[in-house]
Amino acid sequence: MEKQTKTAIILGSTGLTGGILLQLLLEDDRYGKIKLFSRSSVGVSHAKIEEYLGDLMQLEKFETNFTGDEVFCCIGTTKSKTPNKKVYKDIDYGIPVTAAKLCHTNGIPTFLVVSAMGANAKSSVFYNRVKGEMEGAVLNEKIKNTHIFRPSLIGGKREEKRIGELLFKQLMKVVNLVLAGPLEKYRSIKPETIAKAMVIVANSGYETNRIESDKIKKIATESD
């Protein structure tokens, strides 16, 4: 009897965490097809990959092709990269929420999304508030398996240089040494850790909706 494999959808495969996630799924025999929805090609040729290129601000236009078993949403921008607040919200709120709606419409049972530590729909900080509102809207779609990952500052090398962020990351390497116990969740986290935890959660029947940064690390390291 032929082994049944799953179809995964990735949003944000050209980004840091999404790119690592793509490699993990390509190497994972549980996945037979990986659909990538993005503005530009990842430049990877593989039999598992199906690419759908276009404006993710209009993700609903992909409804017919937006089918599978799991959706991994790694979409996200920054204040420095996207200073316009409306555009920022269109990306960090609009794309994940539209993806969740498509999951609901097309009966996709599992939705995993990267949010951020400090996400709070009632926050006075715009960026935290947007993430919190996104989480609430995603949960309102009542997808059977919804998992929200709340990492702290994500480490790793990006193609574009963000001087302020690079300096802060260097500082965090020192600060991480003293963040222990209840403060451990504030330590910076590697994109590899987030991607690995997402794959584990997608395949483990994990029940928690919101997964904080320290728990993300624990999930990833416990499987080693």
Describe the structure.
This protein has one domain: NAD(P)-binding Rossmann-like Domain (Rossmann fold), CATH 3.40.50.720. Helices cover 37% and strands 17% of the residues. It has helices at 16-26, 85-106, 126-140, 163-175, 191-202, 213-222, and strands at 6-11, 31-38, 49-53, 70-73, 110-114, 145-150, 210-212. It has a seven-stranded parallel sheet with strand order 3-2-1-4-5-6-7, sandwiched between helices. Helix 3 (126-140) links the parallel strand 5 (110-114) and strand 6 (145-150). Helix 5 crosses helix 6. Residues 174-179 have low confidence and may be disordered. InterPro entries: NAD(P)-bd_dom (IPR016040), NAD(P)-bd_dom_sf (IPR036291). Residues 12-150 form the NAD(P)-binding domain.
Give a summary of the structure in a few sentences:
Residues 12-150 form the NAD(P)-binding domain. With 224 residues, the chain is of the alpha/beta class.
Order of strands across the biggest sheet? 3-2-1-4-5-6-7
CATH architecture title: 3-Layer(aba) Sandwich
Number of structural units classed as domains: 1
User: CATH class, please?
Assistant: Alpha Beta
Q: What fraction of residues sit in β-strands? A: 15-25%
SS class: alpha/beta
Helix content: 25-40%
Summed over residues and divided by their number, the pLDDT gives a mean of 88
CATH topology: Rossmann fold
Provide a count of the helices. Answer: 6
CATH superfamily: NAD(P)-binding Rossmann-like Domain
Q: In this structure, how is the largest beta sheet organized?
A: 7 strands, parallel
Radius of gyration from the alpha-carbon trace, in angstroms: 17 Å
Low-confidence stretches: 174-179
Pfam families: NAD_binding_10 (PF13460)
Keywords: Membrane, Transmembrane, Transmembrane helix
InterPro entries: NAD(P)-bd_dom, NAD(P)-bd_dom_sf
Domain NAD(P)-binding: 12-150
